[in-house]
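Researcher: Please translate sequence to C-alpha cells.
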Amino acid sequence: MGQASWPVLAVAASLAALSATAVWFFYSHGWLLYYGDAEAHLNIARRIFDSQTPGYDQIGSYWLPLPHVLMLPFVRVDAWWHSGLAAAFASALCFVVGGTFLFAAARRIFRSTAAAVAATGLAALNPNLLYLQSTAMTEAVFFAALMALLYFSVRFRDSQGWGSVAGAGIAACAGTLTRYDGWFLLPFAAAYFLYAAQRRRLPMALLFCLLAGAGPLYWTAHGWYETGDALDFYRGPYTAFAIQGGAPYPGRGDWHMAWYYYHNAVQLCAGPVLALMAIAGAAAAFVKRIFWPLLLLALPGVFFIWSMHSGAVPIFMPHLWPFSYYNTRYGLAVLPLLTIAAAALVTVVPERMRPGIAVLMIGAAIAPWLAHPGHEHWITWEESRANSEGRRAWMNEAAAYLAPLYVRGSGIISSSGDDFFGIYREMGIPLRETFSICNGLPWLATLERPDLFLWQEWAVVKGGDPVQAAIRRATRYGIRYRLELTITKKDEPVIEIYRRIGGSHGKA
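Model: Translation complete:
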C-alpha cells in the first residue's frame, strides 16, 4: 500500500468513529425516526419482503429506490426494524464513503492534504449532517454519490482514463436513483467529460452518458410498468407537485424570494461562519482557476431554487413567514460546495502554516454550535421534532392500546400512510399482519366488496377515509365493527380503532 493511501485510510477510520458515535447518540435518545419520511423509507424497505404482497412492487413509483435497497440487509433484522436502528446502517456507511471521497477529491483539487482535511472536517462535523446520516433520510446516500462523482471527475482531469469515466458514470447513476437533483447534474457532467477529454472525447462522454443515464431510463420504465405512466414520479398523485397543489408559498414564481429563502436555509444548515469563509474561498479558488468542482457542487442548490420557483418545493423556516418548519434540510445540498470553497483559503498561506489554518477554520465553523450546544439549535433535528410531535403522540398511543390486545393472525386493515406502519413497527408485529393500499388489487377489492373480502378483526383508520367508509358499508351485510378508541391530537387527523364484533368471515 502506497504512502499516499494512509491519509485516506486515516480519514475513513476517523469518519467511521464519528459516524458511529453520532448514531449511538441519536439512537439512545430515540430520535432516529422523528422525520416522517424516515419512517416511510424504513417501512418501504421492510415491505419488500414483509407484506401480504411482498416483492418488487413494494418499491413504489415516486421515491427513488436506492436508499431502500441499501437498507434491505439491515431491515430484515426484526429488532433493528422495531427500534429504527436499521435505518442508520446504510446512511452511516454512505456518510463515511462520501466523506472519504470528499477528502480524496479535495486533495487532488488543491494538491494539499491540509486543504483536504479542512474540507472534510467542515462537512463531517456539521451536526445537521450528522443527524441525517443517522436516519433513513436520503441526504447521506446522495452525499456519497455526489462526492464520488466529484472525485472521479477531477481524477479524470489527470488520468484521462476509462476507469475514471466509468467511476463517475456509476456514481452519477447512484445519485439519480437516490434523489431527483441527481438527474439535474447529468447534462453538465456529460458536457464536462466532453470538454475535459484530450482524446476520444465522444466515446468517453458516451460511456458516461450510458452509465449515468441508466438510472433515469430504469426509473421511467419502472413507472410505466407499475402505473402505465412513465412520468408518474413527476405528475402522479403522490408527487411533490400533487402534494403542494396550487397553494402559494414564498418563492413560488418569484426568483428573488426563492433565492432568499434558500439562502437562509443554507445558513441555518451550514452555519454563518462557514458561509462567510466559503465566499472568500470561492474568490481564491477562481484565482487558481478551480471552476469545475464549484460548478458541479453548486448545481444541487440551483435545482432547489428552481424547484421552489416552479411550485414543487416550499421551504419554511421559523424566522420567516409562515414561521414553521418544512424542508429546511435542503439547505444541506450545498454543504459540499461551501466546504470545498472554504478549503481554498488554506492554499493561500505558506505550506508550513496550512495545518494550523485548517484546524482554525474547522474550529471557527463549529464554534456557533459549541457555544450553543443544545440540539434545538440543529435545524434539521428541530424540524423533525416540531413536525412529528402530534404524529408520534397518536402513533404511540395507538400502538400502546393495540399491543396487549392484538392476537397474531387476526389481521389489521389499515389506512394509507407510513405513519400507520409506524404503529405496527412499534407494536413489534410483522407488516404481513396488516392490510393497506400497498397491497394493490386485493385492497381495492376489499374496499369495493367488504362483504366478500373483509375479514380482519381490527381496523385502524383515519377519520373520513375510504377504510372507514368500507367498514360502515360492511354493516349492510351484517359485518359489524365497534369503535374502541378515538385518538385526537392538535393539528393531526382523527384516528379511530375498530374491532370486529360480528358478521360472516369474508376471508373464506
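Researcher: Any highlights?
Model: The radius of gyration is 25 Å.
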